[in-house]
Write a structure and sequence with these properties.
Elements: E1 12-14, E2 17-18, H1 31-41, E3 63-64, E4 80-83, H2 96-107, E5 113-118, H3 121-128, H4 131-145, H5 154-163, E6 178-183, H6 191-197, E7 203-208, E8 225-229, H7 241-254, E9 258-262, H8 293-296
Parallel strand pairs: 1-4, 4-5, 5-6, 6-7, 7-8, 8-9
Antiparallel strand pairs: 2-3
């Protein structure tokens, strides 16, 4: 399901894979798991594979969707794209070759900023730091550039066809329009930030949502963006704004952009978005994320 979204820090979702498994407390009330069950009942083709009932559920088995790969290439207007809002690129059952094809699509759509969020940053680090993985990304780009069914703009197609074979992959990596982030909900999972710090990425970010406790161990060194938010839904756990204030103050001290998504409650908007009388809607500077195919091959 690729759709505009009410998630405040992005503009559209793109799901070349769907399905996941719960692995930490932040997954307990997973919105995607609940939505997948409803979409299966509605007959949505992407959500017909069931997951393990101990960690997943109806319609939420990990699945890959070849036909969804090229969707962002049809969107001409630049957008912030949340990759796999209904899955996790870092999941062990997402084949490395398919993950490489996802990144190849990102490389061929430099007008967009792709926001990749994982609860499995260790596997994603191994992939993105691997020369073998990078080589597959470039090979897939070359294949797509010669496939007339792939909806590439003419100038992009010509540029890739004439120059991709001569690219030094490392000079164009990491992709400058790919933001790589991980979720952290309690102090026990602050190790995920270290995995992101070691990952080859142009923009590294953290989603501290749902925030379920204070994060005294969190090191924000090398982090380019922080999202914070409380939980919503009928079983939501309460957010203490003092936890958010501590994170805000640390972000201010390190000049890390902060996006406070929501206080949370029965619905996402129930508690509002104010922290001490103001909203926090900061993003990484545009200069860190803008890219063109030409810049990537210099």
């Amino acid at each position: 399901m690729n759709t505009t979204t009410s998630i405040e820090w992005t503009e559209i979702t793109w799901n070349p894979t769907t399905g996941c498994d719960r692995i930490s407390p932040g997954c307990d009330n997973c919105y995607a798991l609940t939505l997948a069950k409803r979409l299966k009942a509605m007959g949505q083709s992407k959500y017909q594979r069931d997951g393990d009932p101990r960690t997943s559920g109806p319609g939420f088995g990990v699945s890959i969707h070849e036909d969804a790969l090229v969707e962002p290439l049809r969107w001409r207007k630049p957008r912030k794209v949340f990759v796999n809002s209904m899955s996790d690129v870092g999941h062990a059952r997402v084949p490395a070759t398919f993950a490489a094809r996802i990144f190849a699509t990102m490389a061929l759509a430099p007008q967009h900023q792709f926001q990749v969020l994982t609860k499995r940053p260790r596997r994603l680090r191994h992939l993105l730091n691997s020369q073998e993985f990078i080589d597959v990304v470039w090979s897939e780009m070359e294949r797509m550039s010669t496939d007339p069914t792939v909806p590439l703009a003419r100038l992009v197609r010509e540029n890739v066809r004439t120059r991709v074979a001569n690219w030094n992959a490392l000079s164009a990596w990491p992709l400058r329009n790919a933001w790589i982030g991980t979720s952290i909900e309690t102090d026990e999972y602050c190790w995920r930030a270290e995995e992101i710090r070691q990952t080859s990425a142009a923009v590294r970010f953290l989603s501290l949502e749902p925030l379920l406790g204070p994060l005294p161990s969190l090191d924000l060194t090398g982090i380019d963006w922080v999202i914070v938010g409380g939980e919503s839904g009928p079983n939501h756990r309460l957010l203490d704004l003092d936890w958010v204030r501590d994170l805000r103050d640390r972000c201010l001290g390190l000049h890390v952009p902060l996006f406070f998504k929501q206080v949370g409650g029965l619905t996402p908007k129930a508690g509002g978005r104010l922290l001490d009388g103001r909203t926090w809607d900061e993003f990484p500077p545009a200069s860190r994320t803008l890219t063109t195919i030409q810049e990537g091959v210099r």
